[in-house]
Amino acid sequence: MLLNNGNQEGLFRGAVMQSGGPIPVGDIENGQQYYDFMVKETGCSSQSDTLDCLRRVPYSTYKRAMDASPNFFAYQVRECLSVAYLRYAPTALQGLVLAWLPRVDGHFLKEPPQYSVLRGHVADVPLITGMVPIS
Fold it and tell me: In the chain, N or C terminus with fewer CB closer than 10 Å?
């Protein structure tokens, strides 16, 4: 709904969104480390066209590399903070590490999602939104 400044060019007439809203996704360069990780883990580092190599690796190889990449349950701890601080507030330094998000590229996703919403750059279609409670 936010891609192409909200101009969905007739591709859909409505949307359903579960448990979410626009989250910070960062610039396209923020995803480079994850791409590089996939290239290395799939054995494509020595290839001149790494994207073509990734497209051709066996599924089992690609899945093993994908499973090793950061996911919804991953977290990072900032290295610059002292161990003493971590003892008193260990969860304060954890946050989601979502490797495979759309990234702002200036063309397809022109601006951070939060900005798009604030500026009204959202597809003008009916939206159903909600969440599933965790029990």
Answer: C
